[in-house]
Amino acid sequence: MRILILGAGATGGYFGGLLAKAGVDVTFLVRPKRREQLARDGLKIESPLGNFSTPVAAITQDELRGPFDVVILSAKAYGLAASIEAIRPAVGEATLVLPVLNGMKHLDDLDAAFGRKRVLGGTCHISVVLEDDGRIRHMSPFASLTQGARVPDQQESAARLHKELSRGGFEARHSDDVIGAMWEKWVLLATLAGSTCLMRASIGEIVRTDTGAQLISNMLDECAAVATASDHPPRSVALSIVRPTLTDPESQISASMLRDIQRGGQIEAEHIVGDLIRRGREHSVPTPLLEIAYVHLQAYQNRMKTAQVT
Q1: Is the pTM higher than 0.70?
Q2: Backbone angles phi, psi at 158, to 5 degrees
Q3: What CATH number corresponds to the domain at position 94?
Q4: 21, 117, 185, 305: which one is catalytic?
Q5: Same-domain status, 162 and 13
Q6: Catalytic annotation on 21?
Q7: d(Cα 110, Cα 6) in Å, to the nearest integer?
Q8: Domain endpoint, select from 159, 176, 193
Q9: Domain boundary among 176, 209, 237
């Protein structure tokens, strides 16, 4: 099975690097500078599970030829349109596209571009960053990638893909309810991003205030209520894990969106928080805490736009 991964950034680079190390037929589609870096140094990963460097196959856009069996897409939501155009030459009649973006909004764009029958459902749980020197730093021992069929015709190919992903050594999950898994990740992430970005603090720092734990718990309830109204209620076992994680006074975790804000970068505010609010309104589900967080995120974005103009 020939797999193309768009980019060799934090998420795609981590999972793709482990697959390449295991001998899976993986090719990275990257920009020229990153291609030179990978050719010179290999793909370097630092992890609590062990550091390693591995040679990888990497090509640039002008070198992309013919369809692949699977294209893995881990782009940021604000770069989705450009990512779709970048991978078009790799998508043939039998190609499956596996997006591991956050939220659900991207599925509509990918379905419109390639057809629903070619787009799998997918999500991942990982804490990882790309350093300036090209190293990928895995910040916790946990890493999982979940994928599954959205339509019956995809089931056989999704099962074959699972066998390939399982060779990588990370936790590869083949879900019979991948949309439900995506919603559960979205509920977690919207709460994490909404709270830590609003307060510009880690979970532990928020929880150690007088009412911080209650605020986060209430925001989690809002997100879960939207998911439930959208016919994808989070499983009780999932919430029983998520709630203690998001109300741990010793936790140092924060959303990657907060790190993006701290470095003055673009953020996925609409995709992760705004779209959840919109779906809540469609079902008359109140989301007052999420709306406060979203105002904060939009104000940041407006400041960024003003700075770019001036």
Answers
A1: yes
A2: -65, -35
A3: 3.40.50.720
A4: 185
A5: yes
A6: no
A7: 14
A8: 176
A9: 176
